């Protein structure tokens, strides 16, 4: 059995390891993934030393791969996260989360006077004005939203 050194956690047979999560955000990542549940084994490591980031969180999920929409949400609160897909103890795919230039239909605008918080049938849209850390600007009212505020919505 191979032990991938960089993961610093016990290997899993099949599933996903989300590495390089912004420290103390692992529990929000679990919330996005609607975990834990009764059937899924999840291991969480928080504030692990990282040569790249100082400290980071790691989430290991057995028997589960992520949907693109879930990865998009994780990118909003953990923009440095890497997604490792494990099959038969090997990393078969390693990718970084990727934020697009616009975020649609994931978050609400915190400005109560924004048109998106009225009955008008408009699509909620944010421009991504910063990626590390994430900064969003409402397309309609220009309200700025930063990571802590984004995290609070999950
Ligand atoms: Zn707005």
TrEMBL record:
A single MF term (Gene Ontology): metal ion binding
Origin: domain of life: Archaea
Residues at which Zn(2+) binds: 109, 114, 138, 141
Cofactor: Zn(2+)
BP GO annotations: 'de novo' pyrimidine nucleobase biosynthetic process; pyrimidine nucleotide biosynthetic process
A single GO cellular-component term on record: aspartate carbamoyltransferase complex
Aspartate carbamoyltransferase regulatory subunit N-terminal domain residues: 7-98
Domain (Aspartate carbamoyltransferase regulatory subunit C-terminal) ranges: 102-150
Cofactor note (record): Binds 1 zinc ion per subunit.
Keywords: Metal-binding, Pyrimidine biosynthesis, Transferase, Zinc
One Pfam family this sequence matches: PyrI_C
Subunit structure: Contains catalytic and regulatory chains.
Function: Involved in allosteric regulation of aspartate carbamoyltransferase.
Similarity comment text for this entry: Belongs to the PyrI family.
Protein name (database record): Aspartate carbamoyltransferase regulatory chain
Species annotation: Methanobacterium bryantii
């Amino acid at each position: 059995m191979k032990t991938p050194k960089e993961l610093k956690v016990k290997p899993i047979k099949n599933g996903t390891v989300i590495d390089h999560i912004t420290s103390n955000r692992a529990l929000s990542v679990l919330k996005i993934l609607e975990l834990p549940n009764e059937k899924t084994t999840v291991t969480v490591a928080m504030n692990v030393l990282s040569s790249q980031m100082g400290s980071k969180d790691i989430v290991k999920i057995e028997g589960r791969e992520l949907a693109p929409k879930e990865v998009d949400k994780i990118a909003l609160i953990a923009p440095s996260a890497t997604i490792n897909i494990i099959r038969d103890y090997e990393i078969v795919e390693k990718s970084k989360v990727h934020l697009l230039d616009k975020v649609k239909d994931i978050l609400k605008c915190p400005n109560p006077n924004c048109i998106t918080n009225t009955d008008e049938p408009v699509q909620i849209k944010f421009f991504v004005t910063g990626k590390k850390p994430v900064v969003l600007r409402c397309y309609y009212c220009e309200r700025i939203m930063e990571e802590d505020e984004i995290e609070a919505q999950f």
